[in-house]
Design goal:
The protein is an alpha/beta fold. The chain folds into two domains: about 5-140, Rossmann fold, CATH 3.40.50; about 150-215, Orthogonal Bundle (Arc Repressor Mutant, subunit A). Helices cover about 55% and strands about 15% of the residues. The protein has a five-stranded parallel sheet with strand order 2-1-3-4-5, sandwiched between helices. Helix 4 (about 95-100) links the parallel strand 4 (about 85-90) and strand 5. Helix 8 packs across helix 11 (about 205-215) and helix 10 packs across helix 11 (about 205-215).
C-alpha cells in the first residue's frame, strides 16, 4: 500500500485552518490516505471535487446546517459513488445528515482516531456513527415503519394510507384515544377509520384484523 493509487483519496473541507491542517496531518500519518486537497469552504468547491475525483469527502459542518446538507446532496447527485463523512456539532442534526446521504458522522468533540475510523469505513462502503447516535437512527426507522404505507396492504387488502397507519398502532395495543393523539385526529374519526378497515379485511374486531393481515404474510409490528 505504498503507491498513491492504492491509498484512499480524501478531499478535506474545514473552515478552521489549524483544525484542517491538524486533521490532514493525522490522516497522512496513517499511511493509507492520500489528501488530494485540504481547503476552507469556498466557491467552486464542487467543480474542484469533480475534477479531483476523491473516494471520500471529509466535511466539517457548521452545525450540519442546511447549506452543508444541500452541498452534500448536490455532490451525491453529481457523483453518486462518492462517500461523504460529516464532522457535525449537534446530535440533533445527525438524522438530517443521514437523510442527505452521508455515510459517516463524527461529532466535533470526538477523538482524531474516530475521524480516521470513519473515513476508512466510508472508503470500504461501510457506515460510521458514534454508538450513542445509533439508538436515534433505529428509533427513526421504527417510526417510519409505522407511518409508511405498504404497497401490499394497498393492493392486496385495499387499505388506504390512513388505515395502514392504524394497524401497527392497534397491534401495539394503543386505544382509540391514544391513536387519535398520535395522529392528531379526533377520536370519532379514528373510530370511523377502524370501522371501515374492519369491513375491508373482513374482521369482526381489532385484534382479528391484525391477525388476518399477518396471515397474509405482511409484517406490521
Amino acid at each position: 500500500m505504498n503507491s498513491r493509487e492504492q491509498r484512499v483519496s480524501v478531499f478535506l473541507i474545514a473552515a478552521n485552518r489549524l483544525f484542517r491542517e491538524a486533521l490532514a496531518r493525522v490522516l497522512r500519518t496513517k499511511g493509507d490516505f492520500h489528501i488530494i486537497d485540504a481547503c476552507a469552504p469556498e466557491p467552486g468547491l464542487q467543480q474542484r471535487i469533480d475534477a479531483s475525483r476523491p473516494r471520500v469527502v471529509l466535511l466539517e459542518g457548521d452545525r450540519a446546517s442546511e447549506p452543508d446538507l444541500r452541498f452534500v446532496r448536490e455532490l451525491l447527485q453529481e457523483t453518486p459513488d462518492l462517500r461523504i463523512v460529516l464532522i457535525g456539532m449537534a446530535e440533533l442534526t445527525f438524522l438530517d445528515a443521514v437523510r442527505a446521504g452521508v455515510c459517516g458522522y463524527v461529532l466535533q468533540d470526538a477523538a482524531a482516531m474516530d475521524v480516521v475510523t470513519a473515513v476508512r469505513a466510508a472508503s470500504q462502503d461501510e457506515a460510521f456513527c458514534p454508538p450513542k447516535l445509533c439508538l436515534s437512527l433505529f428509533r427513526s426507522y421504527a417510526r417510519q415503519a409505522i407511518r409508511m404505507p405498504s404497497a401490499r396492504m394497498r393492493v392486496d387488502l385495499g387499505l388506504t394510507r390512513r388505515e395502514q397507519q392504524l394497524l401497527p398502532m392497534i397491534a401495539q395495543g394503543m386505544t382509540n384515544k391514544e391513536i387519535a393523539t398520535e395522529l392528531n385526529l379526533c377520536e370519532q374519526t379514528v373510530k370511523n377509520h377502524i370501522h371501515r378497515m374492519l369491513q375491508r379485511v373482513g374482521a369482526s374486531d381489532r385484534l382479528e384484523a391484525v391477525e388476518l393481515v399477518r396471515v397474509q404474510g405482511i409484517y406490521i409490528d
